[in-house]
Structure formats: C-alpha cells, structure tokens
Amino acid sequence: MRHKIIDFLKDILFHFGVVEKFMTFLLPIFILILLLLLGFVVNFISKEVVVRIATKVVKKSKVTWDDVLLEQRFFRRISFYIGAIVVYQISSLVLVEYPHLLGFAKTACLIYVVFVSLLVINAILNTLDAIHFSISHTKQTPVKGYIQVAKILSYFAGGILIVSIALNKSPLYILGGLGALTALLLLIFKDPILGLASGIQLSANDMLRIGDWIEMSKYGADGEVTEINITTVKIQNWDKTISTIPTYAFVSDSFKNWRGMEESGGRRIKRSVDIDLSTIKFCNEEMLNRFQKIHLIADYIKTIKKEFDQRNKEQFVDLSIPVNGVRLTNIGCFRVYVEEYMKSLPDINLEMRHAVRQLAPNKNGLPIEIYFFSKVIKWEEYEAVQSDIFDHILAIVPYFDLKVFQDPTGNDFRELKK
C-alpha cells in the first residue's frame, strides 16, 4: 500500500516534468505539502459534518447547557482533532523512508493537538462561566476569577507540553529548568497571584458580589459592581462612568458595601433640622389650644396638659412665673409632632430603630435629628420619600412658633439697613 502511494506521487511529479535526479529532493517536500492540504480538507469537512450534526442534536435537546457549548464553538473545535489524527496516521505511512520529516510531521501534529486541546478547554470554561451566570441564585458569586485562573493554568501546562514535544524532552525536565525563573515569574504574575488570593478571601467571607452597591472613596468609586475577575473589579458609578479597581485593594483597603441595607428591608433616614434657639419658649394657653387642633398630637396635648396641671396643683406651684412648675415647650411639641408624623407614614419601617432627638446645641442652633428607616431602598424612590418628609417638616416649623436657622442673606442685611 505504501509503495503504491509513493509510486503514484512519483508519477504525478514525472507528469509535471520533474526528472529523476530531483525526485529524491522534491518528493518529500511534495508529500509534506499534500499532507498539509489533506489536513485542511479533512478539517473543513469534519467541521461541517460535526457542527451540522451537533446543531441538529442541540436544537432537539431540552437542556440549555449544550446550547452554550454550541455558542462557544466547542463542537467545532472538537472536529479539529480528526484532521490531526488523519495526518498523523498517513504521515507514518508515507514518510517512513524519511525519518527526519516523519519526526517533524508527528511533532507538528502533536503540537497541533495540544493547541486544539487548549481551545477546547477554553470553550468548556467559557461555557461553565456562562451557565453559572445564567443561574439566578448563583449569579452574584464571583467565579470569573477562578475561571481565569483555570485558563492561565491550562495555558501554562499547554506551553510546557508544546516546548517538551518540540524539544523531545519530558515535561518534568522543562519544569525543572523553570525553577531558576521562579522569582521572575512571581514578579510578572504578581497582580494575578494577589488577585487570586484576594478573590478567594472575598468569596469565602462573602465580602463582595456582582450587583452590590459599594463606595470606595480612595478610588472615587460609588456604584454597582458589574464584574469581578482575577485582577480587577469593575464598578459602574451612578454617573455611568466605570471605575476599575485592583481586586487585592478590596482586601488591603476599606470600602462600604450597601448590601446589608438592601437585605435588611430598610434604608436609613438620618438628617437634622437646625432650630433657631431664640424662638424656643414655653407654651401659653393660646398656643396649647392651637396645638390641640393638630390631629397627630391632639390627644398628646390633652393628656400631657391634664397631667401637668394636676402635678402643679398638687405642689401648689405659683404659675404666675413661667419658670415654676412643669410646662410644655413649643420645641417639645414640635418634636412629638415629628415623631407621630413619621410613624404615620406607610413608607417608614417601624420595626427598625427610630427616634426624633435633640443633638447638642451649636452655632447653628438646636439640631433636631430625625432617625428612621424607610421601607423604600431604591435610590430614586428613597430620595423622593426623604424629600417629601423634609418638605413637610420644614413647612410645619412656623406653626409651632419656631424658625429654622440659616446664615444671614443679602435680603436680611437690606432689611436691617432699613
């Protein structure tokens, strides 16, 4: 069989005018060219056949993972093995009289097989990444870094195999030679190594997930995590810019993760209103009668007024002087009103900690802090709820004969001049 093939190839060369003295030199080159062309033809045919069959099978299948394999060209890359196998077998048949060329052809085929294997592994890893991302309950787990590590390791192993095949040496021999390059490799792959260690720590401690809202002022990041890989974390800021931060920075530096707020069912409202100290005073009868008409504190005013009157009567307090006895103040009534108002709102989560309290007076007056949690946590809706609350609070302040403190403006100075 081998002799018939060789004779057939010689006849072709004779047909094109190649004389006998050049046959020894041109025949092996002609065989190598034919083997290369054969490999291309077999690859093309096998690719068309395998891909078409795989496409029909995948379309009939009810599972989804095989669709991802098809999208990642897994079956197309598997078909590349057929051409290498055919060329490897035929070269052993037609190049037996040319051991150097036979060794070259076999080595090329083996290197090609390793290269195709790397493409297949890459397709499998990409498929695992895509399938993982499509599963809703695991979408937030940052596994892309592990996928990238697996790719790097596969490329490293493939490179070692290719070099060992080309040099006809054991892979262990090549690895032994790399020992002297360890320090250089550690320097080159410093960021991936640090990123891998950091990624494991972030994942193990559940510190960061895709979709988390984080703040990292050092890097100017304030937005949602869109990607976590072995070297970087990508964050889309609320102004639609993208911040790219080294993965290890999330272990070495501090950052704020708002996931706890989102999972708790409440987003904190913590803001204060500064009241002008000069407007704080005891309530007289006219003020109390007016406050009793305010629905949210009407019962409170009636109850506390009755209680204070009883105490003052029992203690024979001289009420002609306001400082004597126990009395209501307009700031106290205002504080109770704000608390009752907050409790009446449907968007406030009363199961979480809440209070309306006084802070220490300062140069801007007396701060009244509103500390509640909103059931609404989405940013746009939360800001609308918070704005509505303080619109109302600021508007109601004058009804308690109080004023909100602010620095003097140009109009204030003009009025003073008049």
Can you offer a commentary on this structure?
The chain has 16 helices and 8 strands. It is an alpha+beta fold. The strands form 2 sheets. The protein has a 5-stranded antiparallel beta sheet with strand order 4-3-2-1-5. Strands 6-8-7 form a 3-stranded antiparallel beta sheet. Helix 2 packs antiparallel against helix 4 and helix 4 (74-94) packs antiparallel against helix 5 (99-134). It is rod-shaped and about 130 Å long. The termini are far apart. The model has no long low-confidence stretch (mean pLDDT 79).
The percentage of residues in β strands lies in 5-15%
Computed Rg: 40 Å
* Strand order in the largest sheet: 4-3-2-1-5
Biggest sheet architecture: 5 strands, antiparallel
Question: What is the SS-derived class?
Answer: alpha+beta
Number of helices: 16
SS elements, strand count:
8
Helical proportion, percent range: 55-70%
* Strand/helix succession: HHHHHHHHHEEEEHEHEHHHEEHH
Based on CA inertia axes, which overall geometry fits?
Answer: rod-shaped
Domain count: 3
Look at the structure and give the mean pLDDT: 79
